[in-house]
Every structure is written in structure tokens, then in C-alpha cells.
């Protein structure tokens, strides 16, 4: 099974997100994409809209881009895991590098969040990845394994967890597409240490239609987490079609 997902980040109105979801519902259908688990992670304002348009039995999972570790309380501006679930989210993304850089997300808060997400029966999408400096020093494997260990060590059951390896130097408009050999060591290390204990190890960062097939064939990659290239629904559908072809051999 390959996991193919996108985060809309801070884009799309509710109407735009609903339009995207409606196209997805039509194109993916009720039966889904054989061998592929698609997911979409809209802004918090659109989670309920997207979940409603896709429908309760949709083969496309819906997620939230962040949630607090507490179930409720005086945390202005935050949403909780139960609130995200109530809106229709089945996945909660945590530890994205933009949240680590701009909003004070740390390995410690990620560890708290992963426990809350699992306690509520949802799927944590744990993002990890090294900066350009760490990459240049050749310390990527140690750094990323450390991030994941901080989040998951001590948990009895991590079988629902998705790990998304997203090198910071590859993410977003200032990122660059990686060569397969530049991500192979970290993916191999994650796969060796966590592959049997988590649901999937995904790659993310400057994925698009041109490199999706190549990246999906890197040994240990169980899926892709896509930003910009999937904000247009046709881009997402095209990457889903590539994944289907890869699964089909
Ligand atoms: C991301 O930020 O998680 C991401 C994958 O972005 P992009 O695909 O746009 O590089």
C-alpha cells in the first residue's frame, strides 16, 4: 500500500476546498485507487467541509495540519484532537518544519501530541527532517532518527503512525528536488528502525509529477507527502495515477 497525501497549508477558502474535494470524490470514486491510500489535509476551517463533501465512507482520508496535546482548555488559537476528529479528521499532522521554525514546535511537544492523537484513535503523521546545514555535515541520519526517537520511544504501539521524512532543504518554494541517492540513507535508516513498527514511511519535499515515480521507487519509501504540486487537484490526481502504476509494477 502506498500512501499519497497533500497538505493545503494556508491556502484555499472553504468553497475552493469543497470544489477540490468534489473533484476527488468523482475521480477517485467509492472504490478508491487500488493499492493506494490517498489523504488530504486542508486548513482547519475547511476540514468539516472537505470531510462532508467526500462523505463518511470515502476512500480518501482527511486530516488536520496541527492539534494541541491537551483535549480542551484555555489555549487560544489552537484546536484539539477531539475537535479535529469531530470535524472529520482521521489524521493529524505534527512536527512539520514550518511549525518547528515559526511556531515553536519541538520534539517535546511532538511527543506529547503523538500520544494524544493515538489515545483518541487517530493517525499521527509525524514529520521529521534535517536542515541544509545538517545535511551538508553528513549528519542527516543521526538527526532524523533522533527526532523520531524523541516522538515515539516508549510507546507500546506505534502501528498507526505515519512517518514523513521531509528534508528542510527540499521543502517549499526555496527547496530543491532531491536526487534519490540524497534521501536514500535516511529512508533506509527509518525503514530499518521503524518500518515494521509504523504504518508507513513517506517522503515529502518538492515532489511533483516529474519525480513522483522515481521517489516512490527509492527502497523503503511507502508513499509521498506533497505540498504545492498537489494544490491543483489535477496535480494530485496525476501523482495518484503514478502511484497506482508503481503499485501495479
Ligand atoms: C511540505 O511542506 O510538507 C511539502 C511537501 O511541500 P512541497 O511539496 O511544496 O515542497
TrEMBL record:
GO-annotated cellular components: cytosol
Pathway: Carbohydrate degradation; glycolysis; D-glyceraldehyde 3-phosphate from glycerone phosphate: step 1/1; Carbohydrate biosynthesis; gluconeogenesis
Gene3D superfamilies per record: Aldolase class I
Keyword check for Cytoplasm: yes
Cellular compartment(s): Cytoplasm
Keywords: Cytoplasm, Gluconeogenesis, Glycolysis, Isomerase
EC category: isomerase
Primary location class: cytoplasm
BP GO annotations: gluconeogenesis; glyceraldehyde-3-phosphate biosynthetic process; glycerol catabolic process; glycolytic process
MF terms in GO: triose-phosphate isomerase activity
Reactions catalysed, as given in the entry: D-glyceraldehyde 3-phosphate = dihydroxyacetone phosphate
One Pfam family per UniProt: TIM
E.C. number: 5.3.1.1
Family membership noted in the UniProt record: Belongs to the triosephosphate isomerase family.
PANTHER family: TRIOSEPHOSPHATE ISOMERASE (PTHR21139:SF42)
Quaternary structure annotation from Swiss-Prot or TrEMBL: Homodimer.
Name of the molecule in the record: Triosephosphate isomerase
Organism whose genome encodes this protein: Streptomyces himalayensis subsp. himalayensis
Amino acid at each position: 500500500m502506498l500512501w499519497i497525501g497533500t497538505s493545503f497549508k494556508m491556502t484555499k477558502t472553504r468553497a475552493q476546498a469543497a470544489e477540490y474535494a468534489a473533484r476527488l470524490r468523482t475521480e477517485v470514486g467509492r472504490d478508491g485507487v487500488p493499492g493506494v491510500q490517498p489523504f488530504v489535509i486542508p486548513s482547519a476551517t475547511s476540514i468539516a467541509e472537505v470531510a462532508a463533501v467526500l462523505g463518511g465512507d470515502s476512500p480518501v482520508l482527511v486530516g488536520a495540519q496541527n492539534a494541541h496535546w491537551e483535549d480542551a482548555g484555555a489555549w487560544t488559537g489552537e484546536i484539539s484532537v477531539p475537535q479535529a476528529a469531530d470535524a472529520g479528521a482521521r489524521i493529524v499532522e505534527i512536527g512539520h518544519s514550518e511549525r518547528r521554525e515559526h511556531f515553536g514546535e519541538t520534539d517535546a511537544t511532538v511527543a506529547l501530541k503523538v500520544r494524544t492523537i493515538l489515545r483518541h484513535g487517530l493517525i499521527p503523521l509525524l514529520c521529521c527532517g534535517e536542515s541544509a546545514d545538517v545535511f551538508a555535515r553528513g549528519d542527516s541520519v543521526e538527526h532524523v532518527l533522533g527526532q523520531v526517537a524523541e516522538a515515539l520511544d516508549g510507546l507500546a504501539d506505534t502501528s498507526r503512525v505515519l512517518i514523513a521524512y521531509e528534508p528542510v532543504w527540499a521543502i517549499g518554494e526555496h527547496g530543491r528536488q532531491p536526487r534519490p541517492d540524497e534521501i536514500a540513507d535516511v529512508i533506509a535508516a527509518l525503514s530499518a528502525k521503524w518500518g515494521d513498527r509504523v504504518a508507513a514511511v513517506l517522503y515529502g519535499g518538492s515532489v511533483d509529477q516529474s519525480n513522483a515515480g522515481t521517489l516512490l521507487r527509492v527502497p523503503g519509501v511507502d508513499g509521498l507527502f506533497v505540498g504545492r504540486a498537489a494544490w491543483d487537484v489535477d496535480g494530485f490526481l496525476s501523482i495518484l495515477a503514478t502511484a497506482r502504476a508503481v503499485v501495479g509494477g
